[in-house]
Amino acid sequence: MIPRIHHQGSNTVGLLHYLYGRGTHEEHIDPHLVASFDGMAPDPGRDPSVTKKGLQNLLDQPLALLAPDQRPDKHVWHCSVRAAPDDPILSDEQWGDIARRMVAATGIDPGDSAGCRWAAVRHADDHIHIIATLIREDGRRPNHHRSGKRAQAECRLIEKELGLHKVAPGDGTAAKRTTSAERHKTERQGRERPAREELRETVRRAVAGAASEEEFFDRLAAAGLLIRKRIAPSGDLLGYKVALPDDRNGEKEPVFYAGSTLAPDLSLPRIRERWTLPAEAASANGSRPEQAALPDVTGPAFARRRATVATWQALLIIDHGDDGTAAAQIAAAGEVLDALAKTSAAHTRAELREAAFVFERASRSHIRAVRGHDRALREAARDLAHSGPALGRGEDGATTAMLIDMAFFLAIAAANWHAKKHHSQQAAAARQAAEHLRAAYQAAAAQPMAVLRQRGQRLALRARQRQADLLHEVLPDLAARVQAEPGWPALAATLDDARKAGHNPGALLSEAAGRRELDTATSISDVLVWRLRRSAHLPALSERSHDTPARSSRRQGASAPRVLPKRGPLAAPLLRSPV
């Protein structure tokens, strides 16, 4: 059950016309009163002799106790209370009781016989509206400070008592919800999403990996947004607003939204925090060998491998770091998802976009992110954005699957971290993002895993048996399950590649299996394939990926030629990491 305190107004009869009207899309059905301050207020919905003006005069009568210059400019209080879609339809009597509890909890009518006058109108099965005049019967103002939080607390009690859907309590860090007017406008304009949500997504993509204000605003302009900057007399930039070119108000003017109204972390001061690198963080980042030895290489596949390394490092920090640095990693992970969604192939883009969209809620909490220690993830997001779109096949497609696989585990780690902190909304958002990442992985991994499976199936019988024996020796509890998975031949091929590259495949397999839990994996063999190919510095897709099953039977029975580590960028020290 969701209560919402609307902006205070000054036009009582105007609000009554809306509540008793047909609605913007004829959605108001049988508007009628379910409760009022004295239980006897006239009902314009079901009594034809009563007018909305008459009800307004009754509600506003306490204003006459004050001199005209003492009356508040905005005296109309408006609250809506909505049930969840899966809740049963409540009776008028139940809604009336809910209305009385809400005005008591918020201080509008606390039950002292001198509260504000109010009325509750129901014009749909799933919600009511409460209208009140913010002058008590004794001429004083009501004590309705923090009425929104008080209403939320009362709704949690109502849900429990009536057995309704339990809404996760908010913590004030969520982005502002779209209004009903914005949603109706979206329908009229035939948009996929409300302008507010579209702008929030575009701004988040623009800030993902951006290194300066200039780059951030250049990205906003390149995305086609209209930009207004707020400049101080000194010339300093104080803030910004953005608008979609085709989103106009009644006067045909663009509708601008400040960054802070799109999301709490999209205000200019909060964005600037991402570019601040404390001295201790700069020292820590600069001392890591995998960062210091970074070669000057670009390209979608390389950017994805680097992002995979950074994501693994972030997992370790979330698991073992302090709260501030863990919060920073989770926030920066949102930037990686935004950049990944923007640059990935079409068959994965929709799920990745949804993953980034819902993970946005998981990126904020009351635990303040300690920026600077998230530098590796932010640079990874920058690399993804600057490397350009990735193809859905070959090394591009395989490294995309590799990164999504790691991003899935990061989302699970974020969900677990938030759950331990009792951040229910953030934990739920991270779990939802993980499900979208799971679907995106399945689309991204289909082609490269098929190639690796083919190679595994073409291994000589002796080589296949060697890998099976190794699996049973290193992972005796998981061996039967792994061999039953469709991805087992791909894992066998990867173990064979690692051996031919000069590695100890048993040690690699043991390390990969113990690196992090495997219970949430749909396919253990898939997860182990990517972990092994990362830690052994093997190409994500074998150099022999052009092979097809059309080879001769003699050729299929022969063992594959030695797979050597690639020369050049992919063998750089950057990739010789614990991932």
Task: Summarize the structure in short.
With 579 residues, the protein is α+β, with helices and mostly antiparallel strands. Helices cover 51% and strands 9% of the residues.
Q: Could you explain how this protein is built, in words?
A:
- It is elongated, with a radius of gyration of 30 Å.
- It contains 23 helices and 8 strands.
- It is an alpha+beta fold and 579 residues long.
- The protein has helices spanning 12-19, 52-60, 92-106, 147-162, 180-189, 195-207, 213-222, 259-262, 268-273, 279-286, 289-292, 300-320, 323-343, 346-362, 375-387, 394-420, 424-457, 461-474, 479-484, 488-500, 505-514, 524-535, 553-557, and strands at residues 2-5, 32-36, 76-82, 116-124, 127-136, 226-231, 237-243, 257-258.
- Helix content is 51%, strand content 9%.
- The longest helix has 34 residues, at 424-457.
- A 5-stranded antiparallel beta sheet has the order 1-3-5-4-2, sandwiched between helices.
- Residues 279-297 and 545-579 have low confidence and may be disordered.
- Among the domains are: 2-162, 2-Layer Sandwich (BirA Bifunctional Protein, domain 2); 192-275, no CATH class; 448-575, no CATH class.
